[in-house]
Amino acid sequence: MAWTGLSQKALAALQPSQIDLVAGTLLTTARRKGAGVAPALLPLLPQAVTALRAFAAANAWGPFSAASMRKSWLRAAAAAGLPPGTRPYDLRHSYGTAVFLASGSLEATGALLQHADARTTRRYALAAVHPVLTAALGRWPHTPQAGPVVGPAPPEDIGKQAANDGSERPSVETSRAEKGP
User: What is the DSSP letter of 26?
Assistant: First the structure.
């Protein structure tokens, strides 16, 4: 799912006849809803071709029941070190977000995910931080980095603020206490 963008249901029903590992393509089957109503020939990422070769070598073709898919998912997620609670559909969302970041195209992302409505695809754009924004913050001198904190340390007493003349003035709480009830 992470490399194909297929739904769990589509992956469970995947058959060897739908995949051309030499051409790096996958023929989807007809669905009842979405843009996937008609079969579509989709390109595969090299990582998907590698994963599907392993799938073929293990003769791990479906159809699979929901229970067997769930058990397989839990074992695979634990082995991959994924955080607890990660759902199979999260891989599809990660794929969609990565496609959008790479292409910048809602149309291409929607086509690969077989969405019938662009509003569905917009979710992936909302989840993606535009690379230009990330690069802009990366150039800002006080951007926190992974590891040690970069930039000025916070003031010792956050309740006090520096006045224009450089002296400290009391916080709101201190001012109220001095005035009395």
Answer: E
Is residue 162 within 8 Å of 168, Cβ to Cβ? yes
What's the predicted TM-score (pTM) here? Answer: 0.65
Distance of CA 163 to the CA centre of its chain: 44
> For residue 164, what is the DSSP state?
T
Burial 53-73 (b: 16+ CB within 10 A, else e): eebeeeeebeebeeeebeeeb
Does a structural domain hold residue 74? yes
Q: List the structure tokens of 84.
A: 């607890």
**105's tokens:** 């195209």
Q: Could you give the CA distance from residue 137 to residue 36 in angstroms, rounded to a whole number?
A: 39
Assigned domain for 1 exists: no
- Give pLDDT tens digits for 113-157: 888 888 888 887 777 766 666 666 666 666 555 544 444 444 454
Kindly state whether residue 108 falls inside one of the protein's structural domains. Answer: yes
The number of folded domains in the chain is 1
